[in-house]
Design goal:
The protein is an alpha/beta fold and about 180 residues long. It has 4 helices and 7 strands, in the order ααββαββββαβ. It has a domain at about 10-110: 2-Layer Sandwich (Beta Polymerase, domain 2).
């Protein structure tokens, strides 16, 4: 499973369509893959439809040609001014194949909901809670979707780009 470097002449798209992981995903879920590219860091990056992310992750974990046993990170991105406004990015590792994969899922601002992948990788639990807490993206099926960093009564989501830079009330330490 080696990545083919992207080229600026349009040749990379055809090459990545033939990448074994892209073929595997499209063969099992033809509607799931929206785009595949090699990122600047050389990692294969596949954009998945949000309604297919859980199924795609199950496949990538369980299929012998993939075997991505580890979800090393889940991060949120606010792309204010674009739609979908949010992007959730998953970094997966296959120890069996010595391979890395990045999955991206667009999440619209008017319906900031995404299926949880904690059933696939329990290590996604805290990162999904952090994304919920700081961006307001809800993960359906999450076992404990509660705030993890901010106080329970906190209003708003501090990592959104439209969040006010100065607080409404001054912070006073409680120690």
């Amino acid at each position: 499973m080696t990545d083919t470097p992207a080229t600026t002449d349009g040749g990379a798209a055809a090459t990545l369509d033939a990448h074994p992981l892209v073929v595997l995903l499209r063969g099992s879920y033809p509607y799931a893959v929206m785009h595949a590219e090699t990122a600047a860091d050389g990692m294969l990056t596949v954009t998945i439809r949000r309604d297919a992310i859980a199924a795609a992750c199950h496949l990538l974990r369980d299929h012998p040609e993939a075997r991505f046993e580890l979800c090393s990170d889940v991060v949120g991105v606010d792309m204010l001014g674009q739609e979908p406004r949010f992007c959730v990015v998953y970094h997966l590792a296959s120890l069996a194949h010595n391979a890395w994969l990045r999955l991206k899922v667009g999440v619209p601002s008017h319906d900031a909901v995404l299926p949880s992948v904690t059933e696939v990788w329990s290590g996604a639990n805290y990162p999904e809670r952090e994304i919920f807490d700081l961006f307001g993206i809800r993960f359906t099926g999450h076992p404990n979707l509660t705030r993890i960093l901010m106080p329970d009564d906190w209003e708003g989501y501090p990592l959104r780009k439209d969040y006010p830079m100065s607080g409404k009330t001054p912070w006073t330490p409680t120690y």
